[in-house]
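**Protein record**
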Amino acid sequence: MIMWDYDDIDRWGPVLRQHIAPMFHADIEHILAEAAPEFVEDACDLLLDHLLVPREALASALVDWIAAQTVAAYHGTRLTEDEVADVRRNGLRRLAAVDREPRLRRALSRHPCWSEVEGQLTTAIDHFGPGNGCGRREGQVHATLSRAGLVDGFNHYIGHGSEFDQRVAQHLLGDDGLDLLAVDGDQYVIKLAVPGTVALQANNPFRFDHEDFQDMIRHLLQAWAFKLAFPEWQCASMRIDSGLIFYDDVPAEWIFEIARL
């Protein structure tokens, strides 16, 4: 089965073209190149202006295209060698706040003032976990479509670990807490091969544009349109943040690669 990796548009762009090009004006590449749109959004708008079928038909075709393959998704974290081995065996577990206590103690107990705040740890875990003190994270695993976005954009997950750990550490010890998380374990990017139908369901359900394109489909279409206008352009430069939220553990079979940075 083919894997769709958003950042690798030189690979997937021509494949997508074969799938949807008949839905557009035959001269669409020349039209886009001549227009030289400034932004990916402009390129997509121009592309859709020359659509020969209803937009719903295009959206359906793109959903079917994604569903027929696996989707590359990326999870950034900090892990010890034992934790890497556990991920290889068992996959990524949903956040259970209470299970983060050993890691938080391991990292934060190095602080000279740890004895003064240690008694607040359990309360902080309850507040930011089941209490949803930083938004709902309990029972979830998060990933994103763009490795470039994760590594070169919103890279605090790689730098410090989970959002939950960061919130607890900062609550207890301020920026010193974050600094301690940043030296606990090593930086890793975990590449997932997610079944396309699952990826579509996991993609942010709250982010649709005015034409009702799902978030990942909108990013796909914008990148493809801009690539038609500028063949040398690489969509990894966008460093997009298009998230996937899993409400079940991510199985080990989906772990495609665990790369230390």
The mean pLDDT is 92. The chain has 14 helices and six strands.
